[in-house]
Amino acid sequence: MAEAETQTQAAICSRGVTRDFKAGQQTITVLHGIDVDIRAGELTYVVGESGSGKTTLISIMCGILWPTEGGVRVFGTDIYDLSDTELVEFRLNNIGFIFQQYNLIPSIDAANNAAVPLIAQGMDRLEAREKAVAMLEKLNIGDQAGKLPSQLSGGQQQRVAIARALVHEPRLVVCDEPTAALDAASGRRVMDLLREVAVAEDRACIIVTHDNRVFDLADRILVLEDGRITHDGSEMPEGH
Q1: 96: buried, middle or exposed (CB in 10 Å: 19+, 13-18, 0-12)?
Q2: What is the DSSP string of 128-150?
Q3: Could you give the CA distance from residue 192 to residue 172 in angstroms, rounded to a whole number?
Q4: Which of 109, 218, 92 is nearest to 156 (CA)?
Q5: Beta strands in the chain, from DSSP E residues, in sequence order
Q6: What percentage of the chain carries pLDDT values higher than 90?
Q7: C-alpha count within 13 angstroms, C-beta hemisphere, residue 13
Q8: 3-state DSSP: the chain helix, strand, coil percent, rounded to 5?
Q9: Where are the alpha helices (DSSP H) in 139-207?
Q10: pLDDT one-digit tens code per residue, 4-61
Q11: Residue 89, number of CB atoms within 10 A of its CB
């Protein structure tokens, strides 16, 4: 298949993505020329040992961290050719993020935290809050909508962060350990919701995870070792 055709069909197309970091006088290469397409309509997991480059890779794929070399196309847009303002707008309209640290605003309640992307897009605040509460209800924490983050458990905060990532129905959802703070049943529920909301013909979801309880839900698993993709398949390879 021609390169141009592959790029049109890929939700994310990464070519030659390398990332270096400075550590004193040393240069440490975390990613080594990653070539990979993330296909629309699939739930793609990125797995690997701590320090293998997983979070760095997804951060580059969604325009948070710049590559040292290489480029990334997201739904046909060369995101690193955009201006800073254009990139912020592109992320707002196309990408939902679920971070390990939750990154909730401490001074506003769960519903308003979940409504942030809708408000940033210009939606009326009351309508945005209603949509946010509906998403919180899907995650079984609608009764926590009026509480501040400090009044929520770690698992509840994580579900608020997930609601915020999904509420504006982004074309790409990028998750860093979305089930880490959840029990098995809640983790499965979250993954089912990600599949329902984030996986469609014109959407994609990429997830960094160590959670072997949900490996069976993946359409595709990429194994990263020392900044290189060593496995690309529908199941975890033996020995991992």
Answers
A1: buried
A2: HHHHHHHHHHHTT-GGGTTS-GG
A3: 16
A4: 109
A5: 10-23, 26-39, 43-47, 69-74, 77-78, 95-98, 172-176, 204-208, 220-225, 228-233
A6: 65
A7: 13
A8: 40, 30, 35
A9: 154-166, 184-198
A10: 444 446 899 999 999 999 988 899 999 999 999 999 989 999 999 988 999 999 999 9
A11: 14
Exposure on the CB side of residue 165, measured as CA atoms within 13 A: 29
Q: Which residues contact 80 (CB under 8 A, 6 or more apart)?
A: 63, 66, 67, 71, 72
**What are the CA-CA distances from residue 232 to residues 44, 205, 218 (Å)?**
10, 16, 12
- Encoded tokens for 73: 């196309």
Closest CA to 27 of 68, 86, 84: 68
Q: What secondary structure letter does DSSP report for 178?
A: T
Amino acid at 149: P
pLDDT per position as a tens digit, 144-191: 999 999 999 988 998 899 899 989 989 999 988 888 778 888 888 888
What is the predicted pLDDT for the residue at 1?
Answer: 38
**What is the C-alpha separation between 105 and 159, in angstroms, rounded?**
14
